[in-house]
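Here's what a typical entry looks like (ATP-dependent helicase):
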Amino acid sequence: MLPLKDLEEQLLHREEPRGPAAAVADGRKLLVLKQYRFHKKLELQLFSAPVTREGKFKNPLTPIDPLEAVLQTEDPDELRFYAAVSRFQNNPTAPAVPADFAALQTVWENAAGFTICVHDKDFSESIVAGSVKPITTGTGLHDLALLVAQTDGFYDIRPQLTLEGAAVDLRTVHLLYGYFLRQGDRLFLPQSLQLLKALRFFLQYPAGMRLRPDDFGAFQKTILAKLEEQLSVVYTYARPLPRAEGDALGLYTPPERLIYLSELGSYVLINPVMKYGDSEVPLRSRKAVYATGAKGELYQLQRDDDAETNFLAMLLQQHPHFGEQLGEGLPYFYLHRRRFLDEGWFLEAFDRWRSEGVGVLGFAALKGNKYNARRPEVSVRLRSGINWFNALIGVRYGKQKASLAQVQRAVRNRSKYVTLDDGSLGLLPEDWVRQFDAWFAAAEPEGEELQVPRAAFKTLRELFAEETWDDDVRRSVHLYESTLLRSGAIPGYALPEGLQATLRPYQQRGYDWLRFLDEQNLGGCLADDMGLGKTVQAIALLLAQREAGRDEPDLVVVPTSLLFNWEAELRRFAPGLRVGTLYGTTRVPLLKNMERYDVVLTTYGTLLTDRHWLEQQSFNIVLLDEAQQIKNPSSQRYEAVNRLKARVRFTLTGTPVENGTLDLYAQLSFSSPGLLGSPRAFRALFSVPIDQFKNSRRAAELQQRVAPFILRRTKAEVASELPEKTELVLHCPMGAGQRKAYDACEAEFRAFLEGSADEEVERNTLHVLRGLTRLRQICNSPLLLGGEHVGADASSKLDVLLEQLESIVPGHKVLVFSQFVSMLTLIKTALGQRGIGYAWLTGSTRDRGAAVKAFQEDASVRVFLISLKAGGTGLNLTEADYVFLVDPWWNPAVENQAIDRAYRIGQEKHVIATRLICPDTIEEKILQLQETKRSLSGELVKSDGAFVPSFSRSEWLQLLAH
């Protein structure tokens, strides 16, 4: 290892004390003014000097490097002082350089507390203790007055210098180092370069100058007028004119305040001016104001000191930089153009200037300036339309106008500026950006109007002050608030005379609600639980349209699986309606003659196919059943239904929300356009906070907004108005492939019957049983035939059942019965693919108790798949309140036993049992037999379900007849 001393030398840096710190400790700090040795330019030097007991300086003087001193201080004033001193070291420049003069003013403030001395070169060319002489710095060198007098036909211009309040003969002072005025042992620094230049001139001519009248005019215009901006020019022959006398002579008018805007490089100059009559006086000048009388006499008017002081005070309040600029001796203030224009500072400044009556000139001439200097003035007038509240919005910037489309573009692009009709840019303050953002989120622009949907009446008060509403708007909003927002306030309506149904009380209330919305041209969503009769309430509404004399047809859009049911229900409840079904290959005549029908039924698939035809038709009502079919706002179905033209729109659904709030948005944005705003706004305001972050406050806000336009009653809520159990039939029309398979099997079975004698049919009971079973299996699914090739695998029953289950299982438990275990297997596979939990019970299930317990107690198990034979007896399944019978059993008593698995002792819920039936099949015929000939259908089966050969051949053929 190297010796320790060597390591110390090589590794450690020894910090030496620096100049200023040592100087403060050992003596006085000196600022020495001197001339460069080879020319007369000013040089500044800093020293620390030890002092004697008598306070005199003594050698040696230690130089202080100002740049080193900068590193020793954190005081900003001292930093500026040392930087200013450094400009006058080894850097000789002409005395009139503005930057040097500004630095010298900083030095003169002496923030670092140096003793200011002058160098006596006669004592020594070098700076030593004996060659530096302390000197006193004076204050008050602000003005050099020029007195203009008329003498013997000439004009005399005589300088008058005042130092610290006392008049001084120019012959007793002189300039030192080109900058300072020396009077004895006192030094003065002129306030401005203009004052310095005038002093330099008149020190050469201390008695002044005399001009002939012919020369004086040009001299006055070219020189005196400009000197007046910074120096006092006094015309001694002008008589001071008191205010009152000036008013009497008509020579005095109240001053105007003006601001001239101009540019200097990257800066905007703000030059305040007072205008007295025809004379403009820079606010920060000493210029006197003169007026000429009727006989040519010259008067000096009094400047309005109070008005000028207030004007200056106002400007100083407008930017913190302006106060700092006061000390720079400039006649103007200045801001960087980016700060002046781009940051919108000028808008607030112009507001203040206009409110104070200050005129502004030169704004439009600023290079690259496209801005309008006014704030927007927005006018709003709200009037009532058929389906909308129309807000006429006017946006003006002085004489210029911004179109609503340009404002929307600016808000959408998050721009602070909007393009005006003359091409200039108007600033959109942040508060107006927020206001317009709220308007555009809640309304659609149409020309210069915003269309606010009537459904959004609750937000109308938030969007527009009531004083902007016309009388019709006020009446409509008050009506909606007094009915839709108050429980039980909807008026009652008489049912249509042609309705072939008796409505339960809750159904009557639903019909009243639909009628009220319809009368107000408002749509809505009827979202009752499945089985509560949404269809009959809707049919009552459609029938009321015809009895009210509506001319345009109503359009009802349904899933394909429900088309047959709607046809049947319309025939049953409203036989007087002219109903046309837009479906299949014979649609063209109906499309061309829709006006012949009261109600047009179609499917979602057909709507997409015929959308271009349907978009051209005007409908009275468009009603969507199972409206969750349009729950995706980006889907073709959603787009297609929203392009339909209708006076009013309604939706029916048992599950308004399946996966999230966007489901609700899609349905209500159809039935009540504009209620929930744009998809983007809805996602930001409701969907993300509620679905992702479970924000209860936003959920409550959404509920309050949609409450007037969605009516939902659960079975539990109307339980007192329901029978103990309700039995429904849901028709499941076959698709083409399934129908073809069924027709082929039916034809084969009919051929057997037609080709056999009565005795042969009675002997071949098993053959008859096989034929009937194959037909029933195809009604469920052709796949149930197993190895038999029928050329089809689609199942309308499976499709309908799954549609119903997906709607029901989020809030209910369901029993599904089938005679065929193979059908239950198909259902089980489909449930697994959809993530729906199920339990399973067939004749081969070993632990029946475990299956029952899972269904009764496990919340994730929503469906119980049960073979009819295994589940017909001995089960108590009170958790279920929906029952589906996939394939009708010949004996109604057996079906009733299955339904009673749910409706048993301990059941507190209303039970809805639904039979799935394929129309135009053996199932429909058996159902008809059950209803009309129960005694006969009872002869078909024994208690164990075997057929009894009691039907003749002709009776079997009649059963197969279409």
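The first strand starts at residue 28 and ends at 35.

More examples are in the samples folder.
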